[in-house]
Amino acid sequence: MGITKIPSISLSLFSHSSSPLSPLFIPSITNSSYSTKSLHPRHSNRTHSEFQFPSLNQPNHPLKSINKPLNNTFLHCLTDVSMAAEEVSSVEFQGDLSRSRAHWVNKSIVIAWDVDIGDGSCYLYASKTATLVVTGNGIEGHDTKVKLEPDNGCLPADVIEKFPHIQHYKPFKVPPGVDTKTLLKCQLAVVSFQADGQCINATGLQLPGVLDDLFSYSGPLGAVFSEEAISLYLWAPTAQAIRALIYRDSCGGSPMEITGLDEVNGVWSVHGPKSWEGCYYVYEVSVYHHSTLLVERCMANDPYARGLSADGKRTLLVNLNCDTLKPGGWDELSDEKPELSSFSDISIYELHIRDFSANDHTVNPDIQGGYLAFTSEDSAGIRHLKKLQSAGLTHVHLLPTFQFADVADEKEKWRSVDMERLATYPPDSDEQQAQVTAIQDEDGFNWGYNPVLWGVPKGSYATNPNGSCRTLEFRKMVQSLNRIGLRVVLDVVYNHLHGSGPHGDNSVLDKVVPGYYLRRNFDGYIENSTCVNNTASEHFMVERLIVDDILCWAVDYKVDGFRFDLMGHIMKRTMLKAQSALRSLAKDQSGVDGPKIYIYGEGWDFGEVAKNGRGVNASQFNICGTSIGSFNDRMRDAVIGGSPFGHPLQQGFVTGLSFQPNGHDHGAKIVVDSILSVSQDHIQVAMAGNLRDYVLTSHQGEEVKGSEVLTYDGSPVAYALCPSESVNYVSAHDNETLFDIISLKTPMDISIDERCRLNHLATSIIAFSQGVPFFHCGDEMLRSKSLDRDSYNSGDWFNRLDFSYNTNNWAVGLPPKGKNERSWPLIKPRLADPSFKPKKSHILAAVENYLNMLRIRYSSPLFRLRTGNAIQERVRFHNTGPSSVPGLIVMSIEDGHKGRPGLTQLDPNYSYIVVAFNASPKELTFTSPALRARTLELHPIQVMSGDEVVKNSKYDAFSGSFTVPPRTTSVFIESREI
Q1: SS3 track for 374-414
Q2: Could you give the CA distance from residue 757 to residue 620 in angstroms, rounded to a whole number?
Q3: How many other CB atoms are there within 10 angstroms of residue 672's CB atom?
Q4: What's residue 487's pLDDT?
Q5: Alpha carbon distance 51, 45 (integer Å)
Q6: Measuring CA to CA, which residue among 970, 935, 927 is closest to residue 949?
Q7: Among 23, 65, 68, 666, which is most exposed with the fewest C-beta within 10 angstroms?
Q8: How many Cα atoms occupy the beta-carbon half-sphere of 525 within 13 Å?
Q9: Which tens digit of pLDDT belongs to each residue from 862-872?
Q10: Annotated catalytic sites, by residue?
Q11: Residue 573 CA from chain centroid, whole number
Q12: Chain segment 103-145, per-residue pLDDT in tens
């Protein structure tokens, strides 16, 4: 998923350098007026300013009195009371209770505030009924007033570690004996006065620090089932009262029971009868909400919900351990899972559940686009997955599967386009996108990066979104994939939530403990750098919820890996706790082999968390040494060219840079050639596992470490300490597909045959690199989205997959206007040109090439080395230095021999492998004295392939010379003596 961006730029695999070859730095635009739709196109249409103040549509909103005479209600929210202050003094009043600029940071009763009171004084005010009002003389409407004592020292070290962004704030102490727990249920404000008693500043309080210190809790949460009863537990230390409304049905009707919860140290609970099982409930939470400055009555689902009614209206009381929710053999599934010896053996295929079968006519229409499509053993899609698995693929990565917003769970509510009609329009028409976007928020498609509740499978993928159907069907999906030899990865989105505030249907956590779960800026407004409603894993109970949720998916749904969306916005400590919790799972206790669960994510470092602004975050550089993987955007940018944020025609290693200009001004020839050389350095570093300590010869002839090869902005290219920490990719759900980006960046006059070869060349670089290869579903079939750069909400029309291999979905109309209109002048002539469209024979050849590439990767463990030391000892690059042949990368991997000193033997079949990648449009020859007199021959899989071009690859042992056909990856192997 994506990140903070300049408007109209696709959001996902974020980069951090402005170089056309390396990650692009884009500063946080918190407090800007850019639309959040621009910042992250997958989510809300609300503008950023709407997150700064409560909606005027909310009942009793303070600003509704803006046109009334100045009164207490108005001053609740807008306390720039210069009018009132004028009568008292000429000193400008700076207070505003709509903001929360002070922090109650710990149970040692320390409040941090960025003010200097000099000889003045500071007070804490509280009102249980939220009636605080600022006047020229101070605060009125309070129940409690406490004088704070200024501390001339600094904030405590542990506070600074947890909240580094306020490290320079001044500490104020609350005197002993104050009933802190009671005060935290009130509207709170701190106010400063001059020595003469004039009020000069006032603000609200942010409470996560003190809540963590006083109420951190490790006991049961959610619904707990026993043989005799059902107990509900809810962590809500700031709530004033909580009731549970129990319903018999999923919607409508009156509650069959309303029961109050009792509180013990911030945890509310109630014990009910076993007969509640299968019923639904919601919480009624009475709590002060900082966004409205009112005590609100919030109707909320359980944050620990494990079941829901359609569209998340109510929480289902579902016992996941019930035998009726387990497919046959479920408890023994861990024994059936495909073998995994090392994370370096992993290869990942990224797939969207709806994409997989929505267009597959070999699937029963009743289950198309849903979980059960993966149980259709004879469907075209499953047959395709079986081919990939038989060639070596190990993991299927599913885009978000939790309960997300913007797709109705009940299919009868969906609207759809007339696909037969859309097919009649010209390939470059704007009519298709107009009809798709007209109903895009009412159809059945969305990627799902707009979480509502993390711990429940999405209802729209189930045959019935009510009841426990979604639980059973999700489990059947996992079981079916495991049984065809594929492990399952879930795409989890813990960095933000779709809803906030006390009233929204999609708000949950912010209703239960307002201001705690969501990260706030210096003024107390919600941070939105991930798009909207950033979560705060630096807070104890947020971190706990994330770890508990991960464990639920691992134990109760037996998934095999997790891909963390915008992982850099989560704290490193949280990631390590999740990893540790997973590793502690054992088959004999939980039915799960925890150490084989792989974790990876987007380690982009931006927004308020950049440079550890909120604590040590899980960014690429921080996460190294943990065995947690992160996406290697350096590889992507060097192979394809530019970045997702640069000019769309910027070329790279495989898209014609230096060899076949596309008309874009890349600079003088010497500059272009230098960019190509730098790109090759970046690719070579990435192919060596992106290891920061790997030593290679740069294009300038210098011996350098991977960390000494730099991007344009001076950032190191390499960051990993072991190969499984680098997830290598050139294409993902975000941005254009591989076929589309190649079609866009290459010159218009090259042939479709050449574009197909480049598609395979780019993929082969990923497949033959050390580290974890990651492939976007459909790239092996030349998948197109008609050049849509952000298809998160582009419907089935632009996202179609065709496992019959008849079409790749190219040229089905101009892509949606919102994120593509600026590029329409580039896109239109390409879509209109019939020579760009591949034939079925091209698609079939691409599938075969991809399968062969996987077979080659898994033909030797030398492609899957497990340690940094092994890569340093065995992997070499030969076409390096100032005299290197442009456009050619030559890599060798050496194995040892049993009984001989030196390297240990890993491969029983091959003792030496050489892989040559020729990105130029011409045949290239390279001679290396170091590679003379070897018994190298073309890999037998390539010899037997249908690719006649690769068969022209040659090696001359006498001279150590390699001949590599144009736009070809040639693999040479040295077989062991028999």
Answers
A1: HHCCCCHHHHHHHHHHHHCCCEEEECCCEEECCCCCCHHHC
A2: 32
A3: 17
A4: 98
A5: 11
A6: 970
A7: 68
A8: 17
A9: 999 999 999 99
A10: 565, 602
A11: 18
A12: 999 998 899 999 999 999 999 999 999 999 998 778 999 999 9
- Cβ–Cβ < 8 Å for 498, 532: yes
Instruction: Decide if pLDDT at 15 tops 60.
Output: no
Give the angle subtended at the CA of 212 by the CAs of 208 and 217, to the nearest 5°. Answer: 135
Question: CA–CA separation, 544 vs 499, rounded Å?
Answer: 20
Name all contacts of 535-538 with Cβ < 8 Å and 24+ positions apart. Answer: 535/494, 535/495, 535/496, 535/497, 535/509, 535/569, 536/208, 536/614, 537/494, 537/570, 537/571, 537/574, 538/162, 538/163, 538/571, 538/574, 538/614, 538/615
Beta strand pairing call for 629-632 and 695-697: unpaired
Query: Alpha carbon of 533 to those of 51, 165, 462, 502, 525: distances in Å?
Result: 8, 18, 27, 14, 10
Q: Show the tokens assigned to 395.
A: 């993991």
More confident call, 9 vs 439 = 439
pTM, two decimal places: 0.92
Partner residues linked to 57 by β-bridges: none
For residue 206 the two structure tokens come to: 């942010």
Given a cut of 70, whether residue 739 has pLDDT beyond it is: yes
- Token readout for 16 is 């951090």
Q: How many CA atoms lie within 13 A of 276 on its CB side?
A: 30
CA distance 562 to 542: 18
Mean pLDDT of 232-244: 98
Cα separation of the two ends of the chain: 50
Specify the length of the chain in residues.
978
Q: Which residues of 227-244 are buried (b: 16+ CB within 10 A; e: fewer)?
A: eeebebbbbbbbbebbbb
Residue 91: band (very low, low, confident or very high) from pLDDT cuts 50, 70, 90:
low
The single-letter DSSP state of residue 706 is G
CB atoms within 10 A of CB 145: 12
Residue of 746, 844, 718, 737 whose CA lies nearest to 794:
737
Using alpha carbons only, give the angle 793, 797, 799 rounded to the nearest 5 degrees. 60
